[in-house]
Specification:
The protein has a domain at about 20-120 and about 165-205: Electron Transport, Fmn-binding Protein, Chain A (Pnp Oxidase, Chain A, Roll). With about 210 residues, the protein is α+β, with helices and mostly antiparallel strands. It has helices at about 20-30, 75-85, 110-120, 120-130, 140-155; strands at about 40-45, 50-55, 60, 65-70, 85-90, 95-105, 165-170, 175-180, 185-195, 200-205. Strands 1, 2, 3, 4, 5, 6, 7, 8, 9 and 10 form a 10-stranded antiparallel sheet that branches.
């Protein structure tokens, strides 16, 4: 991959896998973004092929993929379980950078889900039980009542993870890095897996 020598440190560099570059960009975002540098737009499709998109929080990544957690009975949960594919788009306005991820989706292990659930604030663990995510809510009072009921039920001791609450991992087939450049002559580099699972890189016109 030819590298523009005018690019500053921390931008595109020659490498055979994209995860280190993503880690560098996410670290930069953690220092410059005022809120939630791990926020990412998650796109799914319903059974009719109609797209849906919403913001979620990335909770982990490694060479296996990008992980987030949700209620599997929510709209996004049901759509992912049906299609087994999704896409993500990170946009860090302060850095003028964007990363897009596309690929099949797998469920995280029960051990991974248990460990992350146990790390959440107690109120968030109660909320996972109280919220019937994405389904009609008759009133705010009904939600607050459910929260009170589960707070009383789990007043002491550990709060178990609901069976319907867990995590998904997007296993990327492509990861595209985009960096703003003057006159809309942006830099775009795509990492794509070949048939053997190795990463191939190519530049795209902006």
């Amino acid at each position: 991959m030819m590298i523009d020598e005018t690019l500053k440190s921390g931008d595109f560099t020659e490498r055979d896998e994209p995860y280190r570059l993503f880690a560098e960009w996410l670290d930069d975002a953690g220092q410059s973004e005022p809120n939630d540098p791990n926020a990412v737009a998650l796109a799914t499709v319903d059974e009719d092929g109609m797209p849906n998109v919403r913001m979620v929080l990335l909770k982990g990544f490694d060479e296996r993929g990008f992980v987030f957690y949700t209620n599997f009975e929510s709209t996004k949960g049901r759509e992912i379980l049906s299609s087994k594919k999704a896409a993500m788009c990170f946009h860090w306005k302060s850095l003028r950078r964007q990363v897009r991820v596309r690929g099949p989706v797998e469920e995280v292990s029960a051990e991974e889900a248990d460990a992350y659930y146990a790390s959440r604030p107690r109120g968030s663990r109660i909320g996972a039980w109280a919220s019937k995510q994405s389904r009609p809510l008759e009133s705010r009072f009904a939600l607050e009542k459910a929260v009170a009921e589960y707070t009383a039920r789990y007043a002491v001791g550990t709060i178990p993870r609901p069976a319907y609450w867990s995590g998904f991992r997007i296993v990327p087939q492509t990861i595209e890095f985009w960096h703003d450049r003057p006159f809309r002559l942006h830099d775009r580099v795509v990492f794509s897996r070949d048939d053997k699972g190795a990463w191939q890189t190519r530049r795209l016109y902006p």
